[in-house]
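4.2 Preliminary Data

To establish feasibility before requesting continued support, the project team ran the inverse folding procedure on a target of 140 residues. The structure was first converted into the token representation described in Section 3, and no sequence information of any kind was made available to the design step. The complete token record follows.
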């Protein structure tokens, strides 16, 4: 965070000519005050309290199981260090899903990092995938 904050403050001063001594908090101190805990679907909170980390994989599996019209499209950079593509693969592979529900998950990996839109060719490919996904699934 310090590098991003320093870069942003330098941009404010040099490019925008904005001088302020106010404290700049990246993400508005979101990580300090956010309640990341989560109640798992189908679990009685009296028996199992909320889990302290944001794991929504059980929710995704429940949604795909309960809604046969739900399709999931994932567009990701192969070289993404913020959300690694092989972690995605591992997590999707370990969802408790029927073969039918698993077929409704569509994953496209791009030769890019986290901000795929910085590469014009990848951004175009990303757009084509999203448009195709909408067209293929809007009638289901």
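Position-by-position output of the design step:
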């Amino acid at each position: 965070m310090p590098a991003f904050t320093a870069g942003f403050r330098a941009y404010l001063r040099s490019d925008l000519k904005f001088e302020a001594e106010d404290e700049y908090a990246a993400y508005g101190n979101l990580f300090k005050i956010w309640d990341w805990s989560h109640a798992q679907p189908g679990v009685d909170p009296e028996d199992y309290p909320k889990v302290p980390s944001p794991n929504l994989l059980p929710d995704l599996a429940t949604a795909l199981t309960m809604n046969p019209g739900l399709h999931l499209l994932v567009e990701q950079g192969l070289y993404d260090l913020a959300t690694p593509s092989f972690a995605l693969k591992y997590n999707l592979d370990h969802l408790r899903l029927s073969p039918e529900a698993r077929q409704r998950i569509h994953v496209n990996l791009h030769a890019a990092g986290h901000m795929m839109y910085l590469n014009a060719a990848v951004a175009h490919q990303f757009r084509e995938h999203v448009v195709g996904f909408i067209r293929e699934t809007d009638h289901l």
